[in-house]
Amino acid sequence: MIQLEQLVQKNLAKEKEGKVASYIPALAEVNPKQLGVALYDLDDGEIGEAGQSEVRFAIESISKVITLMLAIKKMGIQEVFKHVGSRQTGFAFNSILNMEIEKAKYPLNPFINAGAIATTSMVVSKTGEGAFEEILSFARDICNDPNLYLDQIIYHSERRTGNLDRSLAYYMESKNMMLGDVVTSLDTYFKQCSMMVTAHSLANLGAVLANGGVKPWDNKRIISDEEARCVKSLMMTTGLYNQSGTYSRLIGVPTKSGVGGGLMSAAPHKYGIGIFSPALDKAGNSVAGLDLLRDIVEGLELDIFD
Ligand code: GLN
């Protein structure tokens, strides 16, 4: 068994090389000196944990995986990918540039902000005003975390400073890329980013994807094998924004990050991994978290390209 505690101690100081997100003011309040990890072993259903694995933090962009899964469940893969692409970006996660430069018909992929807002608007188009409540209860189910909740302070902070996200949404609205009401979609997006999770709940989510779309703790299927494969391949190619290529070389495991400092990985058929460390690199990925993930992937030989 891998020594998670030792790996946390080894990587904790790396947070000094990063900075907590400050463009959302409530995130700037978070103590950067934290590193927590949880590992869900599909073999025996055991969960290993170390460091701040039970500390709650904002899920942020990792919620994009949850809404993608929900949109796929409601509309099917074919329909979802008529309205959002599957290509990686060379720009920051909240950039409008590629849509504008390429005169795109839909946003690049569901894990950058534009694509995520468009994906949320798909859920809104099916559910209307109740979309966030549905996302919240879906998140609680697939993270096996009944205490997962919406943090009002973070939500208000996101909403107050979310003008860039608004510009993306209204740009897409003007080009007929939004399926659902734009105001409801934006509000739902700000709320989904403000859901509070732990490394433990993210390990559970990773385990569902690693397990081909079936919750390993109760054997209930959430999405099909093919759909889970699609989500994992997008995590591999676009989950770490414009650094996804770099990390597929360094850490060959499908992973999604969030600016709250979370990382959620799915090592197919083996492990779900959740990590939390809030200090980020320039692309918006957790610095100590990625180093810890790299050690775990090496130690357990999880690289899918091996
Ligand atoms: N709420 C954040 C935003 O919209 C999420 C971004 C992220 O985690 N990369 O900018």
From TrEMBL:
Biological process, per Gene Ontology: glutamate biosynthetic process; L-glutamine catabolic process
Keyword presence, Phosphoprotein: no
Keyword Acetylation in annotation: yes
Keywords attached to this entry: Acetylation, Hydrolase
PANTHER family associated with the record: GLUTAMINASE (PTHR12544)
Name under which the protein is recorded: Glutaminase
Listed HAMAP family: Glutaminase
Pfam families named among the record's database cross-references: Glutaminase
Coiled coil: none
